[in-house]
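step 3/5: co-fold with adenosine-5'-triphosphate
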Amino acid sequence: MHDFAELLDRLIYTRSRNAKLKLIADYLRAVPDPDRGWTMAALTGDIDLKGVKSSVIRAMIEERVDPLLFRMSRDFVGDTAETVALLWPEPDAARAETLPGDELRVAQVIERLTGLTRAQAPDILAEMLDRLAIEERFALLKLATGGLRVGVSARLAKTALAQAFDLDVDAVEEVWHGLKPPYLPLFAWGEGHGEQPTPADVPVFRPFMLAHPLEDARVDLSDYAAEWKWDGIRVQIVRVAGETRLYSRAGDDITGSFPDVAEAFAIEGVLDGELLVRGEGQGGALDDGGGAASFNALQQRLNRKTVTARMLRESPAFVRCYDILFDGAQDVRALRWEERRVRLERFVSRTGSDRFDISSLIEAADFDALAQIREAAREGAIEGVMLKRRDSAYVAGRRVGLWYKWKRDPLTADCVMMYAQRGNGRRSSFYSDYTFGCWTESGELLPVGKAYSGFTDEELKWLDRFVRNHTVDRFGPVREVEKTLVLEVAFDSVHDSKRHKSGLAMRFPRISRIRRDKPAEEADRIDTLRRMIV
Ligand SMILES: Nc1ncnc2c1ncn2[C@@H]1O[C@H](COP(=O)(O)OP(=O)(O)OP(=O)(O)O)[C@@H](O)[C@H]1O
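step 4/5: write tokens
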């Protein structure tokens, strides 16, 4: 555990991406299997550490640490895991006798934590804490409480691994999903005494091609094809050796939530597209391939572990396909977009199922005409326009100049601030999360959303002061404020929701302006928002 604890400690105090990469790469070269593989699993979040509940930690503390001392120190240290690590007493001689003498390795620690039940947790954690030095205890408790929080993303960890062994990061990404921790074949390949692991006979995820925002740029439509940006969820459909799997944007396997789509996909290959549901009464709203319901309808299906027969009947899912990565067993990612598009059309028509259609191309004479078409599109399932370079290969990640997303201008409404809460982390001393409302017909203010972004640091200070000086009541951490401040809120769409008393909720709300000039009575009415539902 020593090297692992030292790595975490250094990562916490390192800001620079390059320095982080080097720390992890050096570690991976120096530490043997299977420890380095388990460390990668911890850094990438590839293991299911359930997270030991704080009640378990509290019970352990009561047995071994003075509770009063713990409470005082916790306020000072600010982190439960760190406080326990600091205060954990050395085992007494009798206890020390019962402990195994050998060093506890990170692989053992993680393996034991992944199988941990609630009842076993206090004894097993106490035994491990007794065997570790102080910095290592901190590392153990971070693992046990389910979050390393050392500022390393899965992608950064994989990039470090690629650098450590001089591999291509996208190749690492690709084999990664076919392997399980501690990824022994991957390290063997990296060190040159093993073949590149092949994902050919398992339906694995391939990293998605992503887009840059278009911002104020213009493109020439003879170089770029335009498509609608559908407001669903990104999906990769993979079929190999008679097995179909669906993967989300993050590479999670979501086949279980969409069995209707998976069952309908019977041809070998890998497609990229947007998962949508057909909403009631929305069929035919668009003239290409039938209508799609807005994101809200899709969300009903997204978060369910088990899908009921009723959901399958009322909200059938389908995929609007926009790219092809494998045509049968043939990898077509290196082909130009135009050629892939021809293959895609052929592939989709061969599926013979209405669960798959093609994201049609937008015909526009030139860029200005496209801009007009984009502004006029108000269908719920359309979020804007995508622009794709006609001659580009399918490459993982975000590359300048290949794919652009050009979202529709956001909607805005003038709302009145109602409640405020403190933020997290750097913002924990500021009232930075605001709930705001709009007026009903009868002059009552009802909440319609909550936002905590869109303002500058200066504005945040101003808003924080406003909250503190205009508090009328407090409920735990929440302050109710005088209903006088108008906030202009930008949002992507609005939909029916039970979350707020107003019956409405906004998608991606952010504060676009503080309207000190506008009297609260003149803020928008709920009816006005309701009319924006598509
Ligand atoms: N026709 C389309 N072609 C490509 N992507 C599309 C299309 N329609 C909708 N999308 C969605 O747009 C996203 C493109 O933006 P980006 O690559 O930046 O991903 P993102 O980070 O998920 O973006 P966002 O949150 O803006 O949708 C894709 O991930 C995909 O889900």
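step 5/5: annotate
The chain has 20 helices and 21 strands.
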